[in-house]
Amino acid sequence: MKTELVRVDPARVEDSLDAIRRGGEILKKGGLVAFPTETVYGLGGDALNPEASKKIYAAKGRPSDNPLIVHIADLDHLAPIVKRVPEAAKKLAQAYWPGPLTMIFEKTDLVPYETSGGLATVAVRMPVHPVAAALIEAAGGYIAAPSANTSGRPSPTLAQHVIEDLDGKIDMIIDGGQVDIGLESTIVDFTEEVPVILRPGYINRQMLEEVLGEVKIDPGILDANANKGIRPKAPGMRYRHYAPRCDLTVVEGRQEAVVAKINELSKKARKAGRKVGVIAADETRQLYRADDIRDIGSRTEDETIARHLFEILRDFDADGVEIAFSESFDTPRMGMAIMNRLLKAAGHQVIHV
Ligand code: TXA
Ligand code: MG
Questions:
Q1: 215 is a domain residue
Q2: pLDDT digit string (tens) for 214-230?
Q3: Taking CB atoms and a 6 Å cutoff, what residues make up the pocket around ligand 1?
Q4: Nearest CA to ligand 1 atom 13
Q5: Do residue 101 and residue 189 come from a single domain?
């Protein structure tokens, strides 16, 4: 299949209405269109069309029991696809929709089991990105969209990443430039008594608790034993994920000790002829000796760190890095989301110094 690539400036969507309309037509006919959102690029198909959902799983190579998120652009489109909207969810929607927040509800029959991965629940998100919103409208209101990467690889934050993984497998890619947040949306489950965070993101625990009061965190989120006793409730969080091809280890502890440890391990690996990458912060990048040192941003700006994580993991692959070390980034605002992705990418290989 030939994949059409179109460029849309998110600040001037009105100049690209033709392309958006064409994307909408492709989706209505059951085709697949990748598009930018504020979190990561999504791989869109008509959420109410089971055949489109099957195509999404095939294009990504994703297990079909891993449910998709349904994206809407209009709050009135929520009621037809969910059995009931708890008061707490209404409040959260009011506070953070449109935005990087996904909520889980009981689904109605309108949502096919192909989209919900066989579950009786459905994940719903209303993105704030203007290209995403316009495309959802053009497609008739409901787009199922997982991240637009091959299953298991880091999520795409640039159209180039989507091209790498999906060129030739989908109908269209809309290039809207680099995404803003760089980590997938926060997922909150409302099917239990107390709301539970199934996946941490930009909307952090404190922001949720400001609106809801008590919020729980799924114990599988930061736990290395996610595949053993403690299984995360979001099926996608169980799989090995976000992983670069290289062998990645997170080193945590006091800054000087971390730098010394990474340099020691890097030296050893390079002596053995391996290409070594390091994920450093602005504050420490000068202190490392390795083949490919990436500055992820300043520790004082964790939004910058979040935005660059997946890109760096992909860059390591492109650069042929074989062994990589990362500092730990347990920052106050987005630390839980950053560390959730980083630890998964590292297969939970952590050295404490
Ligand atoms: O930011 C995002 O959410 C991006 C953009 C494209 O919107 N999408 C995204 O989709 O990250 P995906 O498919 O890569 O991740 C969806 C996650 C998976 O871990 C999946 O298991 C979980 O949401 N999920 C979906 N429906 C669910 C449900 N009904 N119950 C529990 N978890 C669910
Ligand atoms: Mg994903």
A1: yes
A2: 999 998 887 766 555 66
A3: 37, 39-40, 42, 66-69, 102, 104, 116, 119, 121-123, 125, 127, 145-147, 184-185, 187, 198, 233-237
A4: 146
A5: yes
